[in-house]
TrEMBL record:
Domain of life, source organism: Bacteria
Record key words, sorted: Signal
Protein name listed in UniProt: PepSY-like domain-containing protein
Residues in Putative beta-lactamase-inhibitor-like PepSY-like domain copies: 55-144
Signal peptide (residue range): 1-21
SUPFAM superfamilies: BT0923-like
Pfam families: PepSY_like (PF11396)
InterPro entries: PepSY-like (IPR021533)
Length: 149
């Protein structure tokens, strides 16, 4: 329950701060943040920076096919959260089993792996012809958030 509350608060904070986010050039990002980013993601391409409150967000691509990724940093360079696109086949079996059980006949789209303070979760959409849901599950297949879209 506590994890659900934390995840819900985090999602709410990200969506509400998004309204006041501003794009900034890398030259306005503190050097400690840029250095931390470059150490953690040396192969990053097409990096765009945003300032959301006091958190720096880097949106970037890696790999041959330009996998979309995002990383959030504190002003001191500490990585807070990291999100990367994944193929739905990369979801853990327990997550896939939960979707099959709770959403039979739905298809999975827009899968992402999220790491925040050594805790991993998986966010994705499940869609049928009549409805769609946004889900966040932990690696064991427990539903952390479930929102009808």
């Amino acid at each position: 329950m506590n994890c659900k509350l934390i995840c819900s608060a985090f999602v709410l904070a990200l969506t509400t701060t998004g309204a006041i986010a501003q794009d900034i050039p890398q030259s306005q990002v503190p050097a400690v943040v840029v250095n931390s980013f470059q150490q953690k993601f040396p192969k990053a391409k097409k990096v765009d920076w945003e300032l959301k409150g006091n958190v720096y967000e880097a949106e970037f691509e890696t790999g041959l096919f330009g996998i979309d990724q995002e990383a959030w940093f504190q002003h001191n360079g500490k990585l807070l959260r990291y999100k990367t696109e994944i193929n739905k086949r990369e979801l853990p079996k327990s997550v896939l089993d939960r979707v099959k059980r709770d959403f039979p006949g739905y298809r999975i789209e827009d899968a992402k792996k999220i790491t925040a303070e050594q805790k991993v979760s998986y966010a994705f959409e499940v869609k049928s012809r009549k409805e769609e849901w946004k889900l966040v599950l932990d690696p064991q297949g427990n539903v952390l958030t479930k929102v009808r879209d």
